[in-house]
Amino acid sequence: MHNDLEKILFTEQEIANRVKEMADVINKDFENRPITLVVILKGSAIFAADLVRHLTSDIDIEFIRLSSYGNGSVSSQKVDIIGGLNFDVNGKNIIVVEDIIDTGTTLSKFKEIILSQNPESLKICSLLNKPARRVSVIEADYKGFDIENEFVVGYGLDYAQKYRNLPYIGVLKRSVYEK
Ligand code: XMP
Ligand code: MG
User: Fold this and answer.
1) CB 3.0 to 4.6 Å from 153: which of 17, 83, 142, 163, for a disulfide?
2) Inter-residue contact 129 to 140 (CB < 8 Å)
3) How far is CA 149 from CA 73, 80, 126, 134, 164, in A?
């Protein structure tokens, strides 16, 4: 385990199993209807890469960046799409892929933007869910794991851009972000 971590929450194998289960549910729901995956960079890229390889529909992948966190561990309120929404949503089956829903602010604002463009359908797929800090009313349609109110890193999730490459998900030591 990385020295900056307090404990591992989900091992590489546990994540792989859960991602496969999530994909199975999506495959059942969509019955091979085409899907546009909208991947929220950077955190969700690794999750999306694993998820997409289990999906059986025709898949179109779009990547977007939302401004939110900066380098800290406290969510900011304002949400902007960096570079704007530069793909067609109208009439598409959209699945937004997110690494974690925390306060819910990011996704609820982004959901409004997508809905205003008349998709055929819109679903939210989040690997992690941190219900303790929820401010906005939003739930994922496809959800990997519920976690406690702890700051987690690994498998795409970062602290100040570090730890994304860890194959597991773990809790960051407080001493790392409080120093
Ligand atoms: P909100 O609060 O808008 O934020 O739901 C979602 C975004 O906040 C980031 N986030 C985290 N990133 N470990 C991380 O690496 C965490 O424990 C954590 N909690 C929230 C993440 O970027 C997510 O997209
Ligand atoms: Mg993120």
Assistant:
1) 163
2) yes
3) 12, 25, 16, 10, 19
**With contact defined as beta carbons under 8 Å apart, do 142 and 126 qualify?**
yes
Amino acid at 45: A
Distance CA 63, CA 41 (A): 6
Burial level of 79, CB count in 10 A (0-12/13-18/19+)? middle
Q: 107: number of CA atoms within 13 Å, CB side?
A: 28
106 lines ligand 1 (CB under 6 A): yes
CA of 152 to the centre of ligand 1 (A): 9
pLDDT tens for 66-82 read 986 544 445 556 778 99
pTM above 0.90, yes or no: yes
